[in-house]
Amino acid sequence: MSQQTTGSVYRVKSPAELGFDPDQLRDKYRRERDKRVREDGPTQYREIGAQFAHFVDDPYVEPGFTREPLNDEVEVIVIGGGFGGLLAGARLREAGVKSIRIIEKGGDFGGTWYWNRYPGAACDIESYIYLPLLEEMNFVPKEKYTHAPEILEYCSKIGQKYDLYADACFQTDVTAMEWDEEESKWIVTTNRGDRMKARFVAMSNGPLNKPKLPAVEGIEKYKGHTFHTSRWDYNYTGGDSNGNLNKLGDKRVAIIGTGATAVQCVWHVGSAAKQLFVFQRTPSSVDVRANRPTDPEWVKSLQPGWQKRRIDNFNTLLAGGEQDEDLVGDGWTHIFRNLAGMTGNIKGSGLTPSEMAKLTELADFEKMQEVRGRAESIVKDKATAEALKPYYRQFCKRPTFDDKYLNTYNLPGVTLVDTQGKGVERMTEKGVVANGVEYEVDCVIFATGFEVGTNYTQRSGYDIIGRNGIRLADKWSDGLSTYHGFYTHGFPNCFFMGFTQTGFPPNFTHMLNEQATHVSYVVQQARERKLATVEVTQEAEDGWVNTMRSKARLGARFYKECTPGYYNNEGKSDDPTKGFLAGSYGGGADEFFNILENWRKDGGMKGIETS
Q: Across the chain, what does the average pLDDT equal?
């Protein structure tokens, strides 16, 4: 049938043409969501305390590291040595800053990629847009979706090119940070006895740095071997990041979790272990990956500015914008190609927002039908295939892409334990209990992700004391309060990077690069104007908080209807100050980045008090 709109005619397929009834599917989504909503919400996970401290130990360094405490001064301290910290360091170097110190808890640069060395680990965004600074580094990754070892090596290359190793402090945890009003400097103390001074501090602690465990009864009773995927124990499993886990041949293994990490590592464990039980609460959307080596002829054809064009093209398409060509052409952009096929020229379609929302939902339904059909076509056991079908909108959870995960369930020793959305019941001395059944195993691997919905200072591991003794934990106790996500009143010369009221593209490094560019601009302006401090006004901060609240309503209904997960605070999405996406700008990443660019072009440091 056709439907008349204000400026065009668009055609909505009938249920027979679609192959499904949208009303029935919508109802199915609701039922699947409702059975996964738990009263405990985010508290179904536990913070790793002293009893489980070994889950956050660094297995990649030699024990016993010591050094003399530092009692010195630098111009800029950057906290965190992942891509955010590296980008901040690189952009500050380009702005002429010579005195930069990066403080990192790991033994080297890399952040998420320092910790995540599990078998099969790879980026899920095309590496030509995910790895930043490719043109500056004159580097092109080996594969369309490059694997963790190359990413970790690349992080080290960035550190070397921009001379960020010279003053870096590795294997070091910040324990406190306090503003010295008399000197207009930050005092940063660490677990190594350091007491450093810095004119500016940029915090890039990262959202994926602190592992979490399920708060299941009896977890402390289990007597077998355990580890978290972010601290993979190759001494126990054998093998390396490519797999070949040769020590698991006589082992019964449990993996708890079926998110992005499990999707990449399950095949390697299932191929090697005597038995593997995968405990699932909610199935992931697992689409085609189709990884391939980088074509040397394509590399030769690249023109200056190619990476920025490719990044912008990807981000615009995912924001629903128009592009003449889909340069990346993968599962991320597929849904938007579907939508364009339904509406023709989206911007010129004349569709009302309501009509556009309905067509977007239909395009989403069609895409997820493909994903569910893929599970059915690959997994031989019909009951297992049905349990692996995700019944929710594509971006309710981070989509995954893998060509081996579903095939794992055709291996003779692999069992999917679908908990019908309830999760694991408890653990015993011998194993894991789910659906009333005890599964005895030799090893439990927790693929349960990281703390992302807890408060900022808890995730960081330290509090920040600003002017007049105000603590950041107190100021942000009722939610984030910033200006453009970077600064908060009462904390001068202090910049936040990451998911603090900022744009949220699926390509995280795009956001981090935009933030690093902005921070380096402000620091450069302060240096050129000989300013002792830069601090957001309370008025500007209040205005941005109001903007964030009004924009948050744009996606509120969508995430409220989503299956529970860390995106929507485990289904407790009525509170917009909670959950991973609470810190994202509701108008979209493109719109947010334009706000920053226009602010810089204005040149007036609007909203910033200087002294």
A: 90
Q: Is 484 left (phi over 0), alpha (psi -120 to 50) or beta?
A: left
CB atoms within 10 A of CB 351: 23
Joined tokens for residue 605: 């440091």
Rounded CA-CA distance 170/586 in Å is 36
- At residue 207, what are phi and psi to the nearest 5 degrees? -85, -15
Q: Are residues 430 and 495 in the same domain?
A: no
Residue 137 has pLDDT above 80, yes or no: yes
Query: How many residues in total does the chain contain?
Result: 611
From the CB of residue 64, how many other CB atoms can be counted at a distance below 10 Å? 5
Mean pLDDT of 26-32: 94
> 393-436, pLDDT tens digit by residue?
988 888 999 999 999 999 999 999 999 999 999 999 999 999 99
Helix axes 589-602, 306-318, angle to 10 degrees: 130
pLDDT per residue as tens digits for the range 339-378: 666 555 555 557 777 777 788 888 889 889 999 999 999 9
Residue 577 has pLDDT above 50, yes or no: no
Report d(CA 360, CA 349) in Å as an integer. 13
Q: How many Å from the N-terminal Cα to the C-terminal Cα in the chain?
A: 65
Strand partners, 272: none
Its sign, for the CA torsion 241, 247, 249, 252, is negative
Residues 402, 260, single domain; the answer is yes
pLDDT band with cut points at 50, 70 and 90 for residue 574: low
pLDDT score at 202: 98
Domain range for 387: 48-53+211-289+380-446
Same domain, 571 and 510: yes
164-174 mean pLDDT = 97
> How big, in percent rounded to 5, are the helix, strand and coil portions of the chain?
40, 20, 45
Is 281 within the bounds of a domain?
Answer: yes
C-alpha dist (Å) from residue 525 to 351, 511, 518, 532, 580: 44, 21, 11, 11, 32
| Backbone phi and psi for residue 410, each to the nearest 5 degrees, phi listed first | -95, -10
> Around 563, how many Cα atoms within 13 Å sit in the side-chain half-sphere?
26
Q: Which residues of 515-551 are buried (b: 16+ CB within 10 A; e: fewer)?
A: bbbbbbbbbbbbeeeebebbbbeeebbeebbebbeeb
Local confidence band at 186 (pLDDT 50, 70, 90 cut-offs): very high
Q: Are residues 436 and 507 in the same domain?
A: no
The total number of structural domains in the chain stands at 2
CB 45 within 8 A of CB 215: yes
pLDDT at 11 over 80: no
Residue 471 lies in a domain: yes
- The whole-number pLDDT of residue 567 equals 72
Q: How far apart are CA 456 and CA 472, in angstroms?
A: 9
Please tell me whether residue 29 adopts helix, strand or coil conformation: helix
